[in-house]
Amino acid sequence: MSLGQLGSSGQKNQAQPGRHLDQGMNGQDLMRSARFRKEREADWRRLETLLLAAERKGLQRMGFADARDLASLYRQATTSLAIAREISLDKALLGYLEALTARAYLCVYAPQERLGGLVTRFLARSAPQAMRRSWVYVLLGFLCMGLGVLAGYLLYFENTDWYYVFMPSELAGGRGPDVTNEALRSVIYDQDPDGSGLGAFATYLFSHNTRIAIFVFGLGVFACAPAILLTFYNGLGLGAFFALHVERGLGVDLGGWLSIHGVTELSAICIACGGGLKLGTAVLFPGDRSRIDALRLAGHDAVKLALVAALMLVAAALLEGFGRQLIQDMTTRYAIGWGVGALWLAWFALGGRRRR
Amino acid sequence: MIFSRWRKRRQERPSPDELLPPEGVALTLPIATVGVRVAAQITDVLITLIAAIALVVLLAMLDGTNPQTIFIIGTLIFFLIRTPYYILAELGWNGQTLGKRLMKIKVVSHDGGSLTAHSLVLRNLMKEAEVFLPATLLLTLDSASPVASIISLLWIGGGLLVPLMDRHRRRLGDMMAGTHVIHLPVPLLLKDLATETPVISKTRKKFIFLTHQLDHYGAYELQTLETLLRAQNAPPSNNAAKQRDATIEAIVERIRKKIGYADPVPYGDRLRFLKAFYNAQREHLEQRQLFGDRRENKHYAKDDQEA
Q1: What confidence tens digit (pLDDT) does each residue in A233-265 have?
Q2: Contact yes or no for A118 and B227 at CB 8 A
Q3: For residue B188, is it within any domain?
Q4: pLDDT for A17
Q5: Helix or strand holding residue B106 (H, E)
Q6: Which of A82, A108, A134 is the last residue of a domain?
Q7: What percent of chain B shows pLDDT beyond 90?
Q8: Is residue B280 included in any domain, yes or no?
Q9: For the segment A59-102, what is each residue's pLDDT rounded down to a tens digit?
Q10: CB B183 within 8 A of CB B32
């Protein structure tokens, strides 16, 4: 039963003409506003006790009769407030009614959703639907990254010094154009993993790429430019890194090393970029709405993209922390990486479609 | 000229404290100040931080993890605790975290509608980008790279400025989620002064006011008198009693002079006089209001002429 239906039973109460006459005798010498108060005070007091109970226990655990009364008494109180503002000059009464109605409003219009339902709904419907709605922005995100990779790749072959420009030294982990083939290979096929599972997981999650994803999303609000630049820059580094390995004939091996988590992780960055772009375009081109309104509307989908990206980053961290050290075979790496990628794609493409 | 127009437009806008629920009767819910919200935020951070530290210590005791990774695991745990904490607390407690409960503030929907789970999730996720990310940046500021420091300081400053510039004190997350934060009102019903019938002995005469005597004051003066009369119920200390008597006497004389009430009011009857005047004045003003003659204060006649 919705609140609207509940309310109708209560409003009948108020319109009863008999009430006025019943109490007219003892309150005849009172002025109108005092009489008004006297007639309704009991209802207000009851609403107050119901409110206290509802705030303590929560609406869900209240009895049916109490919940019904709360809703109808709230509507009665709003009418009382509207009338009191017209007929009464009693400051105490006005203040009380105002506070009481406000408290009741906050209670009646409290969020009614359960958390479990929220999570299922997000996974089953709203996330893939949001992804499909904003496919243009996600595509733009992938485009930024892809162009970056291409540019980085080509620039490296033009001059290997570009590698040092694009690749932050702490991220390269000692890998560069002046390192031997064996050293590069040993990083890709690491036979002696040093980090433990959880430690590696945590380290990874707060590594470079997660920070990039957060910045790319958060900075999108500032007119898109920072998000595009950061994604492009990230692609540049990746391209140069890849070119280095291709030059040494390790391209396919590096592909496997990157695939196992990179498919998920780089997609996450691109999706975060898509979310940021969505916010940025809302600020740049609000259309007929005010900028705040446009931002709020875009936020509905953008935040879902950010959540999807976060989910993918956690998955990538699991793959990186546990999978990469355990699986040393190149083909398996490819299979797992792209298999997981296909699963993501299937979720986005097929999830939340209405059955005919 | 532009300035005056700007000021006029400012005055025409409805007060930011007003909220219009679906029932269509505007409610006054005062916007929470930035200071109170910061206090609530600090409380919440402390609560989650303590929980995270306890967990990390437990984890460190269970297996002797590498001390280098313990810090980063701690960061992870802090993140994993605080993000769900804010969302779950605000969902469960109807827009209040523990810190907000302590400070008696609450999240409400900006358009007066129902508070949705979506907006609560959104505003708390944005908190990560708005509060925690700048805070971590501040902690990791590096004097070696001045450009990066200046950029991050600008970002932090910009983030702090947004709620200060907004009339509703909303941060970016609030704007996107369509919410703002208010002080919880406390309903407290005081006795109606008009129903307190004073005991009138036969020997004393009743105070009677004529209509023209009640045309001097408006609602503001009436409600000031109400506040004064309510304050009389509290028993004063010895020193304050003398002062209070003096105030009452001054007020009684002032009113008598203004309305032209000729009979002197004896010492014991002063409060009774004020109460009778309050009742008569209120009845008169309320009646005028019913006829569409709203008198805000004693200058009502002047306002009418100007308009």
Answers
A1: 888 888 888 888 888 888 788 888 788 878 888
A2: no
A3: no
A4: 43
A5: strand B105-109
A6: A108
A7: 13
A8: yes
A9: 778 889 998 999 999 999 999 999 998 888 888 889 999 999 99
A10: yes
A145 part of contact set with chain B, CB < 8 Å = no
Residues B147 and B260 placed together within one structural domain of the fold: no
* Domain interval for residue B248: 193-306
Residues 6+ apart with CB under 8 A from A79: A11, A14, B25
Is A356 inside a domain boundary?
no
Average pLDDT, chain B: 82
Tell me, yes or no, whether B110 and B200 share the same domain.
no
CA atoms within 13 A on the CB side of B306: 5
- Using a pLDDT cut of 90, give the percent of chain A over it: 20
Q: Do A217 and B23 touch (CB under 8 A)?
A: no
The predicted pLDDT at position B129 comes to 75
The whole-number average pLDDT for the span B109-113 is 88
Are residues A104 and A121 part of one domain?
Answer: no
Fill in the amino acid letter for B61.
M
- Asked if A138 and A305 touch (Cβ cutoff 8 Å), the reply is yes
Strands B179-183 and B105-109, by their bridges, are: antiparallel
Residue A220 near residue A273 (C-beta atoms within 8 A) = yes
Q: Is B233 near chain A, with CB under 8 Å? A: no
How many domains are contained in chain B? 2
* Global pTM value: 0.75
Distance from CA of A331 to the nearest CA of B (A): 31
* A134 found inside a domain: yes
| Residue-range definition of the domain harbouring residue A10 | 3-108
Q: Are residues B10 and B50 in the same domain?
A: yes
Domain count, chain A: 2
Q: State how far residue B71 is from chain A, nearest Cα, in angstroms.
A: 10
Q: Which residue type is seen at A20?
A: H
**What pLDDT does B158 receive?**
81
